[in-house]
Specification:
The chain is α+β, with helices and mostly antiparallel strands and 452 residues long. It is built from 13 helices and 23 strands. A 7-stranded mixed β-sheet has the order 3-9-10-16-13-12-11. It binds glycyl-adenosine-5'-phosphate. Glycyl-adenosine-5'-phosphate (GAP) binds next to strand 10, strand 13, strand 16 and helix 9.
Length: 452
Amino acid sequence: MAATDVTMDKVVSLTRRRGFVFPSSEIYGGLGSTYDYGHYGVLMKNEIRTLWLRAMVQERDDIVALDSAIILNPRVWEASGHVAGFTDPLVDCRTCKLRFRADKLEDSNCGRKPSKRPGETADCDLTEPRQFNLMFETQVGAMQDEASQAYLRPETAQGIFINFKNVLQLARRKPPFGIAQTGKSFRNEITPGNFLFRVREFEQMEMEFFVPPDDAEQWYRYWVEERLNWHRGLGLRDENLRVREHGAEERSHYSSGTSDIEYLYPIGWQELEGVANRGAFDLTQHTQHSGTKLEYVGPDGERYVPHVVEPAVSIERIFVALLCDAYREEVVGERERTVLQLSPRVAPVKAAILPLIPRDEGMATRAKNLFGELRRRFSVEHDDSGQIGRRYRRQDEIGTPWAFTIDEQTLEDETVTVRDRDSLAQERVPISGVASWLSAALERPWSPPAAA
Ligand code: GAP
């Protein structure tokens, strides 16, 4: 199966069938573009977040972690420009009563049958575009008046800027240094859809890197390369990744450089991660609005407002890219199988432990013991229900890279069969050496198998 045959519908169907992701509030008819994650979805999201934090914080000397609040003082969003400018242009159709993004009419369908683009039929009656703010509003405290109005954060970045001084002083940092944060962000997107690609509630992973102004361009190039390599390291195929640099007309007024790391989703090339050279804009804005000077003062009196380079991505965009990249339908022998060829580093379950004949006490006991030993260190699953072939298929569909089968030979020589998800090759290893075998296998470099 070629990667181009992977459709979003197939990926959605598998994630539903295997309990990765469910439409949210389903028993009440759902709520547009919000999703709940089931067991395997949670495990896989945890792996993505852990790998990001490892690369951005644990393995570096120059980046520290932060976890700021979701609801901030509303003045933060005035200073950042979100209250005035975080908007999409909208038009309403007076005939079909639907609402569309004025800049995305060619991607929308009007409410009449047969459906056309909004404005294309004689009946369409579109209003003039007006600006619609994407921030979700809420109230803080018991009074519901203007003074209590607040917002759910539309990005995690501002929580970082407003803590710049704390980190500078208390973590004893000097530029270049970064602050990294992961957490939920909320946007009242008007044209959400395409599964998790554009949702109203998503988990961002953002890092603000503060640098001396003269070094900003160099750090910007560095982070584009670094982040592209990180996505490659997750196992995403090289041919499905590219960098697209924004033209001057596409960039925010304060940005001197923005690049999207794009992925070839089934819906076409789309932004996976953005890397922006934001200049001194954010720290300057918060200095002006708060009255607190956000600047670096060196030991010899040198002072400047650091420039900021920001790589920003959501777990959802990575999650969808990984699933689309990994999804394959194959014929093996006479049988068809669907398999997720995920990198072992992101696979929700690293190995399955399968007693060949579950009612055989010798096999059952050894399988349970092995499971008990492995689960202390790895995400593993014990499965003793159904035909062995069906159990393998189930593990293939959730992307489990290896299965250890306890069979007749195990009872004779205390070895087990290891089955490789991608090559289907089998080898035997001593049952006592499975933990170290698995540990070494997870450390090995991995690249996606060539398309069949
Ligand atoms: N602080 C900069 C910022 O938030 P952005 O381009 O608006 O920039 C950064 O968002 C990243 O967040 C995007 O590259 C994408 O990975 C993710 N993202 C943005 N909106 C999203 C949505 N509605 N659903 C899922 N992910 C989203």
